[in-house]
Automatic annotation (TrEMBL):
Gene Ontology process terms (BP): carbohydrate catabolic process; D-tagatose 6-phosphate catabolic process; lactose metabolic process; small molecule metabolic process
NCBIfam families: 1-PFK (TIGR03168), pfkB (TIGR03828)
The gene coding this protein: pfkB
GO molecular function, one term: tagatose-6-phosphate kinase activity
Function as written in the Swiss-Prot or TrEMBL entry: Catalyzes the ATP-dependent phosphorylation of fructose-l-phosphate to fructose-l,6-bisphosphate.
Stated name of the protein: Tagatose-6-phosphate kinase
Catalysed reactions, as listed in the record: D-tagatofuranose 6-phosphate + ATP = D-tagatofuranose 1,6-bisphosphate + ADP + H(+); beta-D-fructose 1-phosphate + ATP = beta-D-fructose 1,6-bisphosphate + ADP + H(+)
C-alpha cells in the first residue's frame, strides 16, 4: 500500500489580480479553491494515475471539513485525525505580474494526536510506500519526520520525504528512498545559490553522502536532475507548454516518480514519469490526469 502524510493540509485559494499593488485595494478577476498540502496533492495525483493510496494527516475546523469533503468528492481515500483547536490553513496563491504565495503556519497538534498517527503508522507492512510531505505546524519540532522514520526503522518501507531545511536534513541518516527538494531549497541547505545542473548534481550527491538514497531535484521551467542510489545520473530539460498553474507541480512530480518506479522498477522510467507528471500539472488548471501525463510522455521522448 501507499500512504501519504500531510501534517499541514490546506485549502489553496488561488486568486488572479491584474497588476497587483501593495498597500492598495486589489480586486480579483479569477478565483478558485482546491484542496492542497503536499501529501494530499501526491495522493490525488497517484489516484489520477491509477495508484490506490490512503492520505493520512491532521485536519481542524471548518476548513478541515471542506478539505475532507473535496477529497471524498474526488474519490481519494483519507483517514485523517481531527484535532480539537484551530482550523486547517487557507493558503493564498496570488497570480499577477509575478506569482506570490502566503502559506499559513497551521493549527497546533497535540501529543495525543501524534500518538494516534503513530498508531496508524504501526499498521504499515514491509514493502509499503510512505510519503512525508510538506511543512509541519510552526509549534512542532523540526525532528518530526526524523522521529517518524526512527520509529519505523525496523520495517522495510520506501519512504519519500518532501520538506525543506532541517525538517528534511534531519531525516537523511535514516536513508529516505526519495527526497525532492527544488534547486532553491537545495541551495538553502548549503547556503549557496544553485542554478546550473552541474552544481545541482554536486550538491545532490552531498545529500546522498549524508544518507539519502535517491535525490530528485526539480528546477521548475528549467527541468530536473536525478541521482540514484546505484550511481546513475539523469538530467532533463522541462517539457515545453503553456504554464497554467504551477501549484502542486512539485508534488505531482513526486507522485509521478513513485508511480513510474512502482510500475517498472526502473529509475530512468521513474524520472521520465516524474518530470512529465510535474509538467502536465503545470500545464493544466488542476492536477494532472493520467491522459495528460501520457500525452506529454509521448510528446517528450526526445527530452530523455
Ligand atoms: N513552467 C514550467 N514549465 C514546464 N514544466 C514545469 C514548469 N514548472 C514546473 N514544471 C515541472 O514540474 C516539476 C516540479 O516543479 P517545481 O516548480 O520545481 O517544484 P516545486 O513546486 O516543488 O518547487 C519541474 O521539474 C518540471 O518538470
Ligand atoms: O506545507 P507547505 O510547505 O507550506 O506547502 C503547502 C503548499 O504546497 C502545495 O502542496 C503545493 O506544493 P508544490 O507547488 O511544491 O507542489 C500547496 O497545495 C500548499 O498550499
Amino acid at each position: 500500500m501507499i500512504y501519504t502524510v500531510t501534517f499541514n493540509p490546506s485549502l489553496d485559494y488561488i486568486v488572479t489580480v491584474k497588476n497587483f499593488q501593495t498597500g492598495m485595494v486589489n480586486r480579483t478577476v479569477d478565483e478558485i479553491i482546491y484542496p492542497g498540502g503536499k501529501g494530499i496533492n501526491v495522493s490525488m495525483v497517484l489516484k489520477n494515475l491509477g495508484f490506490d493510496n490512503t492520505a493520512l494527516g491532521f485536519m481542524a475546523g471548518f476548513t478541515g471539513d471542506e478539505i475532507c469533503r473535496l477529497l471524498e468528492e474526488k474519490g481519494v481515500k483519507a483517514d485523517f485525525i481531527h484535532v480539537e483547536k484551530g482550523v486547517s490553513r487557507i493558503n493564498v496563491k496570488l497570480r499577477s505580474n509575478e506569482e506570490s504565495e502566503i502559506n499559513g503556519m497551521g493549527p497546533a497538534i497535540m501529543q495525543e494526536d501524534i500518538k494516534k498517527l503513530y498508531e496508524k503508522l504501526d499498521q504499515l507492512q514491509d514493502g509499503d510506500v510512505l510519503v512525508l510531505a510538506g511543512s509541519i505546524p510552526s509549534v512542532m519540532p523540526e525532528s518530526m519526520y526524523m522521529d517518524i522514520m526512527k520509529h519505523l526503522e525496523d520495517k522495510k518501507l520506501n519512504i519519500a520525504v518532501d520538506a525543506t531545511r532541517d525538517l528534511l536534513v534531519n531525516v537523511l541518516p535514516y536513508h529516505p528512498f526519495l527526497i525532492k527538494p527544488n534547486n532553491h531549497e537545495l541551495g538553502e541547505i548549503f547556503g549557496v545559490t544553485i542554478t546550473d545542473k552541474d552544481d545541482v548534481v554536486k550538491y545532490a550527491k552531498k545529500l546522498q553522502e549524508r544518507g539519502a538514497r535517491n535525490v530528485l531535484i526539480s528546477m521548475a521551467g528549467d527541468g530536473a536532475v536525478l541521482v540514484t542510489e546505484d550511481g546513475q545520473e539523469f538530467r532533463a530539460e522541462a517539457p515545453k507548454g503553456e504554464l497554467k498553474n504551477s501549484v502542486g507541480a512539485g508534488d505531482s512530480m513526486v507522485a509521478g516518480f513513485l508511480a513510474g518506479y512502482l510500475s517498472t522498477g526502473s529509475y530512468a522510467e521513474a524520472f521520465k514519469m516524474g518530470v512529465c507528471t510535474g509538467s502536465a500539472s503545470a500545464f493544466s488548471e488542476e492536477l494532472a490526469t493520467k491522459a495528460e501525463v501520457q500525452a506529454l510522455l509521448d510528446k517528450c521522448k526526445n527530452l530523455f
